[in-house]
Amino acid sequence: MQTTKLNNIDEITHIGNHIWESWASMWNGDLSITKNIIAEGLKVHLTAAARYDPNNIVDGSGVKEMVSSIRNKYRYLKYKTLAGPFVDVQQQVVTAHWEAQIVFDGRSELPNDIAGETFTIVGTDILKFKDNKIYEFWTMNNPARP
Fold first, then answer.
1. How many angstroms separate the CA atoms of 120 and 140, rounded?
2. What's the pLDDT at 113?
């Protein structure tokens, strides 16, 4: 009995880690995987400053459109995981703290967007998963202080 429970914990942990790796790859430009990791009926929680209506992001296509739109505003955008991922096996949630390095191209709405300037943001994402797909996520981010 204990072995079965442990195997289930290991399996869910593995799935959570895989989901995080796929999520990070998607944000780093591999948009081809979006439909494979996002469930239909997705529920999205964004910060108040987000320029996207979370009610319009309900599936892989909506996430792909949002990520593509964000990536296209910058000359360079690269995410890396700073801490985690951490998997809560009982809740089937994976979370991590991340950093994004950005090189501006003069196309974002940010007031300090000067083409060629670099910028760093940090954040935390929480991804709730089931059946190997993300069906709810929360994201929070802020500019990093030098």
1. 14
2. 84
**Whole-number Å distance between alpha carbons of 39 and 133:** 5
> Would you say 101 and 76 are in contact if contact means Cβ atoms under 8 Å apart?
yes
User: Rounded distance, CA 14 to CA 35, Å?
Assistant: 20
Q: Is 58 helix (H, G, I), strand (E, B) or coil?
A: coil
- The tokens for 70 are 């964000």
> Tokens 């690269």 map to which residue?
78
| Global confidence as pTM | 0.90
* CB of 113 closer than 8 Å to CB of 104: yes
Amino acid in position 142 = N
Indicate if the pLDDT at residue 55 is higher than 80: yes
Assign residue 115 a region (left: φ > 0; alpha: ψ between -120 and 50; beta: otherwise).
beta
CA pair distance 134, 76, nearest whole angstrom: 26
